[in-house]
Design goal:
transferase; FGGY_C; alpha/beta; 17 helices; Nucleotidyltransferase, domain 5; seven-stranded mixed sheet; six-stranded mixed sheet; 2 domains; Carbohydrate kinase; 24 strands
């Protein structure tokens, strides 16, 4: 076997961007050409329907002699597919990107996407990636996709209609019924069924899709193409669709109330479980080796968490993008009565709690670098801002009436910019305070991930939270999926696989600004409490 460090020297941080919408792909290893829409039946491997759900099974790890030095993560986003390879130490070897048609939105709260565009983009991206990797050194592959997307499939496992995306509310009526039918279960799990919850979309499909033979997640469609058969799904995706991770079952009383047959839903296994092997056809189409293990993946948010290195109890990562997300690890399941924090099973038996805010960096102007520099020199703002765009908040508090505000007129654009940056950091601190009132410990430093790499933002977050903040160098979903695949084949599991992920220098709070920031944070919480958006208990925890 070629040493993976030698390979790293040849293709270090190679990135390939491929956007050709070709109808054919070439296998770089076998020099054979196959149509991108070739059926699994061409390889005598057919879709196998799963009928009865089963409890979670522990991950199945490969034996030592099966371990190879390279693993691949496949991130199927809503507008592009990104693949990334790592060696046995978690170092990035190469990556590739391929676009596909984006989602569409229609009146009435409909958000959908043509699921047939995902696999051709996966083929193209994998072909580019595997062309620079030794085929025999690829030891496992895992897939990550966004949470809450449901896809209707026919008897052959092919899409029977468009995928319904998170935020689609055509199942709102069913979700009201689901909230009532499963009230006891949801309380035990600390979950809240909302108007756009995925279980309602599943019920809508059951009542409105005549060709429906099953409901799957995007990752399931990709793994079915890779293995040539229907596979068990990851609990990470199933939990977003109503699966009970504590009981290890789909909520039968809810499904019965919604008239959703259990045969429509897949069996569920823990993330990191080996669910199949790459088929001969998929190998020819992608350049992956025949028989390469395919393991159950996680959602994009949790893949980013793994990529940051937050994999043991107490570790948390704040992921900053258009929406802020906080994710971490606890030893046991901690239900949240407010329903703003939900948990998924950890591959090693712990739990992965997390929440997603509607507040983030979506408001950033184009010249944010200039404003960052000026705001850094200016110091703490004299006003308080809550930079929520639109209306409605879901974490760290739930309020459909919430909206953005500033406490007073800013002196200039620099003060407004600084106040908004601080406002996002206040949301992060309030999220940490919410975890503390639930009894969830958070260790120092706080890990940081996201597309925004701003020294000002990192410094403000550290000063506001009072924690050191360590930015993660490769905190993207494809990297997390590759580490998950690595964890499925190395003896030390996920902890060993992610041991090198939490790199970066820890940024400490600025002592001279902490008192001013704490005063502003308390004013921020007072504004939220006065508007009735946060309850008395959270207000007391945050301001004591």
């Amino acid at each position: 076997m070629q040493d993976s460090r030698t390979l790293l020297g040849k293709v270090r941080l190679l990135t390939v961007h491929h956007h050709v919408q070709s109808g054919h792909v070439t296998d770089p290893q076998a020099s054979r050409v196959a149509p991108a829409n070739a059926s699994n039946q061409a390889d005598n491997e057919t879709y196998v329907s799963r009928v009865a759900p089963e409890p979670l099974a522990p991950p199945v790890r490969a034996t030592v002699d099966e371990v190879s030095g390279v693993t691949i993560g496949i991130d199927v986003g809503t507008s592009r597919v990104r693949t990334l390879a790592v060696d046995g130490s978690g170092a990035v070897l190469a990556s590739a990107t391929s676009s596909h048609p984006p989602p569409s939105e229609r009146a009435g709260g409909h958000r959908e996407q043509d699921a047939r565009g995902w696999w051709p983009a996966v083929e193209r991206s994998l072909c580019e990636l595997t062309a620079v990797l030794p085929r025999h050194d690829i030891g496992a592959v895992a897939v990550t996709t966004p949470s809450g997307i449901v896809v209707p499939v026919d008897r052959r496992g092919e899409p029977a209609g468009p995928a319904l995306l998170a935020g689609d509310v055509r199942g709102a009526e069913y979700n009201r019924a689901a909230a009532h039918a499963g009230a006891a279960r949801w309380r035990r799990l600390g979950l809240a069924v909302k108007a756009d919850s995925a279980i309602g979309r599943i019920a809508w499909l059951a009542g409105n899709q005549p060709r429906l033979a099953g409901v799957r997640h995007p990752a399931d469609l990709v793994t079915a193409r890779l293995t040539g058969r229907d596979n068990d799904t990851s609990s990470a995706h199933a939990v977003a669709c109503g699966y009970d991770p504590l009981g290890g079952e789909w909520p039968t009383e809810v499904l019965d109330a919604l008239k959703v047959g259990r045969r429509l839903l897949p069996r569920v296994v823990a993330p990191g479980t080996r669910i199949g092997k790459v088929s001969r056809l998929a190998a020819a189409l992608t350049g992956l080796p025949v028989g390469c293990p395919v393991v159950a993946g996680v959602t994009e948010g949790y893949a980013q968490q793994l990529a940051s290195g937050a994999v043991t109890p107490g570790q948390f990562v704040g992921i900053l993008g258009s929406r802020y997300r906080l994710r971490g690890v606890t030893e046991g399941l901690v239900p949240d009565p407010s329903g703003t924090v939900s948990s998924q099973p950890h591959p090693d038996g712990w739990w992965l709690p997390g929440g997603a805010s509607n507040t983030g960096d979506a408001w950033l102007p184009e010249d944010s670098d200039r404003l960052d520099a000026a705001a850094c020199a200016r110091g703490p703002a004299g006003i308080v801002a809550y930079p929520l765009r639109g209306s409605g908040e879901r974490f760290p508090f739930a309020s459909p009436e919430a909206h953005g505000f500033t406490s007073a007129e800013p002196a200039d654009e620099v003060e407004l910019h600084r106040a908004r940056v601080e406002g996002v950091a206040f949301v992060e601190r309030l999220a940490l305070d919410h975890l503390r009132r639930l009894g969830i410990p958070v260790t120092d430093p706080l890990l940081a991930a996201g597309d925004l790499h701003s020294p000002l933002w990192t410094q403000v977050r550290a000063t506001v939270t009072g924690l050191g903040v360590r930015p993660s160098p490769h905190a993207e979903p494809a990297y997390g999926a590759a580490l998950l695949a690595l964890g499925a084949i190395v003896p030390g599991g996920l902890i060993e696989a992610c041991s090198g992920a939490a790199g970066g220098t820890v940024v400490e709070p600025v002592p001279g600004e902490q008192d001013a920031m704490t005063e502003s944070y308390h004013r921020f919480c007072t504004e939220l409490h006065a508007r009735g958006w946060i309850d008395d208990e959270l207000f007391a925890v945050a301001t004591r």
